[in-house]
Write a structure and sequence with these properties.
The chain is α/β, with parallel strands linked by helices. The protein has helices at residues 13-27, 49-52, 63-66, 87-100, 115-130, 146-156, 168-171, 179-191, 200-208, 236-239, 257-270, 285-294, 309-318, 334-340, 368-380, 382-398, 402-420; strands spanning 32-36, 58-62, 138-141, 160-164, 194-197, 217-219, 243-248, 274-279, 301-305, 321-324, 345-348, 361-363.
Length: 421
């Protein structure tokens, strides 16, 4: 399994999925060797105890620790490309995450000064590592690992699974795609024996924009990541007077923070004792702060900036309503996290999780009147709030990772048996 991150090291959304999926596969008697480009020497020290004690079934390899001196002649490109945000925002998040990681280590951001060079260096490192490992299937997550997966397949002939968590089109709200990343994504999907997408929404995108054969695509929805139910925080300084409505995630066009702010204005006209919290960082953060101030709502908004795991638990615990007005969301596991902290949710119909989540209120991201009306309904009608809280909690508890792990295992079996025949 190839990934660019793994909790608690650079734990973005794809990394969290990799960790949860690996753990569930191990429980299904699958041996998982996870390879990532950078990390501490004693990587096991920082892992979840369930994985760190499973060394007979789970092995994590840091390519850079073993093969640091791979030299490549790669043309430098004018733009700094990377998985989700800007180089500046990535560096900030990296610094904060690494300072809190259990296995601290020295070194710069894993994306380096030139991402394309780092991606192909990782591919060469993986080829060398593969000479020492036994495996039946290659499973690659996110476009930054696709060149490594393609190289590995060509070298070994092993079947390859590409796991698409997000595409270039989703990052821009469906408007455009960086041509170089698009080509890397497409080459990976073209060479894959199976393509896993986290939603039907992403399946449609890769059929219509990447022209991938639908017969080799399998939809495997994500499950809920566990939350620490012992961490409870009631934000007494705010909640003595106000209810709290939460937005948590990257403050980027894709996540729709501007629609959240527009809806907040309408809510405050009818429910002035409401505080809105925007938790996260991103390239639109400063613009959103300025917009809130311009609209005269500065005293009703809290911008937390980056938040760590413990702060995430507290944020979802203290909120009365969670809103995810994403313009384009491949899946979006955050509503599950809110439900597990007993917070009712409002999500956009343009999100992948809307395909499977039932005990939530769904809106079109652009319909700020409906977003505001649904926020007001949850803040005003106690029976609705209680029903959404209880039903949402049980729905998220039932969304266990054994379900997607079993689907992945069936895909592996399908490929290995096919290869054997």
């Amino acid at each position: 399994m190839l990934g660019w991150e793994f909790p608690p090291f650079f734990a973005g959304g794809a990394g969290i999925v990799c960790s949860a999926l690996s753990e569930a596969l191990i429980q299904r008697n699958v041996d998982v060797t996870f390879v990532m480009p950078s990390g501490p020497e004693d990587v096991y020290a920082g892992l979840d105890s369930k994985l760190s004690t499973q060394k007979t079934r789970f092995k994590i390899l840091i390519a850079n620790n073993k093969y640091k001196n791979i030299k490549l002649n790669v043309r430098k490109i004018s733009s700094l490309l990377h998985a989700y945000a800007t180089q500046e925002s990535y560096n900030q998040a990296y610094s904060k995450l690494s300072s809190m990681s259990a296995g601290k280590f020295a070194g710069g951001p894993i994306y380096g000064k030139n991402l394309k060079q780092e991606v192909y260096r990782f591919a060469e490192q993986v080829k060398l590592l593969a000479l020492e490992e036994e495996f039946d299937v290659i499973h690659a997550h996110d476009w930054v690992t696709f060149p490594a997966a393609v190289a590995l397949k060509k070298m070994t002939g092993k079947p390859m699974v590409i796991h698409v968590h997000i595409t270039e089109f989703d990052k821009s709200g469906g408007i455009h795609a960086d041509s170089e990343i698009y080509q890397i994504e497409k080459e990976g999907m073209d060479n894959a024996d199976r393509v896993i997408t986290v939603s039907n929404k992403i399946k449609d995108t890769i059929i219509n924009k990447y022209f991938i054969d639908p017969s080799k695509i399998r939809v495997v929805h994500n499950a809920a990541t566990p939350m620490d139910e012992s961490i409870i925080y009631d934000a007494p300084a705010i909640k003595s007077t106000d209810k709290i409505v939460l937005f948590a995630g990257r403050v980027t066009l894709q996540k729709g923070p501007d629609y959240f702010i527009a809806a907040a204005k309408k809510v405050l006209e009818k429910a002035p004792n409401t505080t809105f919290v925007i938790a996260g960082t991103g390239d639109m953060l400063n613009k959103m702060i300025e917009r809130v101030a311009f609209m005269g709502m500065a005293d009703k908004f809290v911008f937390t900036g980056f938040f760590n795991e413990e702060q995430r638990e507290k944020l979802f615990s203290m909120a009365d309503v969670f809103v995810m007005p994403s313009v384009s969301e491949p899946f979006g596991i955050v509503p599950y996290e809110a439900q597990l902290k007993r917070t009712p949710t409002i999500i956009s119909r343009q999100s992948g999780i809307a395909e499977v989540l039932n005990h939530t209120l769904k809106v079109d991201f652009w319909d700020v009147d409906q977003i505001a009306n649904k926020i007001l309904a949850l803040l005003t009608y106690a029976p609705l709030h209680k029903a959404m809280t209880n039903n949402g909690y049980h729905e998220a508890k039932a969304a266990v990772w054994d379900i997607p792990a079993t689907k992945c295992l069936n895909i592996y079996r399908e490929l290995v048996w096919s290869e054997g025949n």
